[in-house]
Amino acid sequence: MKRAKLLRPALTALTAVALALTLAACGADPVARNVADSHPLHRLLPEHVRQSGKLKIGGSTNVAPYLYRDGSEITGFEKELMDALGEELGVEIEFYDAGFTALVPGLQSGKLDVAMGDFTDTKERQQAVTFVDYTTSYQTLFVQKGNPKRLKTADDLCGTTAAATVGSLSGELAAQQDTTCRKAGRAGVKLIEMDNAAATMMQVRTGRADSVVIDYVIGRYVAEHSDAGDVAGAPFYEQFHGAAVRKDDAPLRKALGAAFEEIMRNGSYERILKHWDMGQLAMDAPRVNAATS
């Protein structure tokens, strides 16, 4: 009996501790449980994203109409797409305004979870990150007003000056065309590289450059909303825009893929594309690392 009396306080204490731990766990779970119940895809996210309730996305706000600033407000097609992703995944989007050259390092350092916003999937970039592609993209030539050099195709760039933003696909394509021109025994393409898209377009507007190899949607938007220049020739070089994640972040890749599938299924994707007059960029389903060049 004495032994039983001595054990009873200890058992009571242990029971109290266990009960306290149970109550603490129950107190922490309802919010997470409610989020998961109302947003089923939330469970697919990496643990650190679920715990913080935030998805850190980086992108450049110099690429209207994809992603840009209207006064102090960030807007554009990609902004609406980010908001739709946040809704499906049950997280807050924490946006970081970064230039293209900072996106991959930002992912690799862990400062960013995702990079997107007119971010083109390429084989070279696939060596460092994994893309979940959600729209097609095309290039076109943006030329001086009136197109005095009569440029229509990439081959017409031989012997001309092209501008490009550092780290952009435009710069890569202009450099490739320079090589093509020289191999054909023609004058090459002189490339002027600038730090941001606005400065790049200014090179054409002021006549320092004859053209910019530019995303078709951006070129069309700039031509319609300014006197900086004109779009020339037909769209070419089909590629893909995607949300990039670290190569080892399979959970986030899968979560993003599922979220894109859902917004494509429920009509949000089509609505956003239509709102920004980008229906020609639509994909039937997201694809991982779709680029072949």
Structural class: alpha/beta
Rough outline: elongated
The ordered string of helix (H) and strand (E) elements is: HHEEEEHEHEEHEEHEHEHEHHE
Query: If you average the pLDDT, what whole number results?
Result: 89
- Low-confidence stretches are 1-28
Strand share of the residues?
25-35%
Q: Give the biggest beta sheet.
A: 7 strands, mixed
Radius of gyration, CA atoms, in whole angstroms: 25 Å
The helix tally amounts to: 10
Q: What is the percent of helical residues?
A: 40-55%
Query: In total, how many beta strands?
Result: 13
Describe this entry's structure for a reader.
With 293 residues, the protein is of the alpha/beta class. The chain is 44% helix and 27% strand. It contains ten helices and 13 strands. The chain has helices at 2-38, 47-52, 77-89, 100-109, 123-126, 169-183, 197-205, 216-225, 250-265, 268-275; strands at residues 54-59, 62-63, 67-70, 73-75, 92-97, 114-115, 120-121, 129-143, 161-165, 190-194, 211-215, 230-246, 282-288. The strands form three sheets. Strands 7, 8, 9, 10, 11, 12 and 13 form a seven-stranded mixed β-sheet that branches. It has a three-stranded parallel β-sheet with strand order 5-1-6, with helices on both faces. Strand 9, helix 6 (169-183) and strand 10 (190-194) form a beta-alpha-beta unit. Helix 3 (77-89) packs across helix 9 and helix 3 (77-89) runs antiparallel to helix 10 (268-275). It is elongated. 39% of the residues are buried. The model is unreliable at 1-28 (pLDDT under 50).
